[in-house]
Request: fold
Amino acid sequence: MENPICIPTTAHRSLPSVGLGFWKIPNDATAGLAVEAAKLGYRHFDCASDYGNETQVGQGIDTIVQSGICRREDLWVTGKLWNTYHRKQHVRRACERSLKDLRLDYLDLYLIHFPIALAYVPFEHRYPAGWHYDPGSESPRMIPDAVPISETWEAMERLVEAGLVRTVGVSNFGVSLIRDLLSYARLRPSVLQVESHPYLVQSKLLRYCQQESIAVTAFSPLGAPSYVSLGMASASESVLEQPVVQRIAKEVGRTPAQVVLRWGVQRGTAVIPKTQQLHRLKENLSLVDFELTPEHMALISGLDRNQRFNDPGAFCEPAFGCYYPIYE
Reply:
């Protein structure tokens, strides 16, 4: 199955608009899932060292290429710099560790995962580092480190110059941070990855990125389902149960999930839904042979509540002992 809708990035490459996110995918299911996704036509894999399964994604990619499902150059693989590696002397080593685990010579995109710099945790001490500085201490907590984004970004630019990554970008950044970054960046960020779904439309942020020719990837594009198991959302908060989404799904002959994902793609973002179910994998990719009307788009956007499920300002303090808002 083809995935022909692409979003141009500032590096004159194409980011497939439907990808597979590997957040929370169990290690023992990851490699096989990657292979099955590639067979269906997925060419965009969203990874991160913090997900703890890059080694297994790498096994899957190796199988994909060796078995001839597709070539390496047909894949778009995204990686992310974790919070504990923001100091310039750690950035390259963090990237090289991801490349080793993914069995790749280069990443198509490398993102600063959060605008959150934490105290360095040596690779040999713990990897992935996670949020806590010392999980075994009497009072485990995250420890912030005052690293300027400019320092981290300069090291990210050097990864491109070294040929380790093709493009660089940011994740969980807002307009003010991006505007500041653009004031000194030698290489502009090509992609912004943020939470976005009908309950968190982020129309101003999307418009700003489009104005600046920065592609946008929406993580958690279906909203609450990714967070129910973590206790960060309830099943009743699912946008898929909204009557307006259910009605539009019936009108276009698609599932509510396809309607919400099509809304994301049609408004100009890439989407990276997560699933382990093969029929859902196929369903999530089948978005190119129907369109939503302007009325449909407006109705879905009208569900906006500015409801953010993934908010460090909400989860860092109870989970990691440190109040750390980033969106205010």
User: Anything to note?
Assistant: The chain has a mean pLDDT of 95.
